[in-house]
Structure formats: C-alpha cells, structure tokens
Design a protein that fits this description.
Number of helices: 3
Strand order of the largest sheet: 4-3-2-1-5
Number of domains: 1
CATH topology: S16 Ribosomal Protein, Chain: A
CATH architecture: 2-Layer Sandwich
Helix content: 25-40%
CATH superfamily: Ribosomal protein S16
C-alpha cells in the first residue's frame, strides 16, 4: 500500500519534516517515491508547504495519509478539496 507520511530530517532536537509518498513497508526516513511537501514545526507559526496538485493526484490513485499527514493536509485545505472532488464523483 502507498502512504502519504512524514519523513524526519534535521539534527537532534531540531526536527524538520518532508511530506512524502512512500511504500508502507519502507522505514520512516528511508526510501520514498515522491516529495510532495515540507513541514517545519520550529518556526512561529509553523510552516507547512504542500504541492496540492501532486497530493490530490496521489490521493486519487489510492494513497492513504497517516494521521499526522491528514492533519497537515486539512490545515492547507487539500483534504477539503479531495473530499469535495470525491463527493462530486459519487453524485
């Protein structure tokens, strides 16, 4: 299964994350398919950048976001776009 999840970067006590599309069997900070965003919790306010077009494309192909990735997608509005698109497809 393909998942959208966070990949940790940075030094000790200085985390920074990439939002990546990866196989669910690969390690947290290991092999990935594509980088679709970044998350920096250390800035005030925290910085979230997501390539909405690529995220929607992966969600359309069946990628499942982790809980944390879903929250980040909700904050950027991508999750709402995905739900609206899915709702119109089913109607």
């Amino acid at each position: 299964m393909v998942k959208i999840r966070l990949m940790r970067l940075g030094q000790k006590h200085q985390p920074m994350y990439r939002l990546v599309v990866a196989d669910s069997r690969s390690p947290r900070s290991g092999r990935f398919i594509e980088i679709i965003g970044q998350y920096n919790p250390r800035t005030e306010p925290s910085t979230i950048q997501v390539d909405a077009e690529r995220a929607l494309a992966w969600l359309g192909q069946g990628a499942r976001p982790s809980n944390t990735a879903r929250v980040l997608l909700e904050k950027t509005g991508v999750w709402k776009q995905w739900q609206d698109k899915a709702k119109h497809a089913n109607a």
